What does this fold into?
Amino acid sequence: MKYYLIPLFLLFLIGCSETINEEDLIDGTWIGTAGYKDGKPEGEPYCTPIDEGIIFKDDGYVYIEAYDEDFEYWLKKSKHGGMTLNFRGEHHYLSYIVDKINDNEIGLVGEDDYQKDESCYLERK
It folds into this structure.
């Protein structure tokens, strides 16, 4: 009996892993409500200008309220194993490791040395 439970348990674990795609981001305004550390909201958001509000569009662009500007965005597999969310504007390039917490919450952590201390817990409003 225990040999039948192991494959079922593994299937359950695979089903629980939340992967993120572009469709998950579109709709609503994402606002930074906290920092993000060890998979949990903690402290103050620190990922300017993302934390002030962003709106993902279905054409590969995101409106960043703080700059009143559209940035190009894309998701790609991270060299650390997860997914990165990348933003490129006229004079800016930002890259965050992104965790999908649920349909209305994501966590961002700065990917490279330049952004290593940045993190945000974003909620869809």
Notes: The chain has a mean pLDDT of 87. The longest strand covers residues 93-102. The radius of gyration is 16 Å.
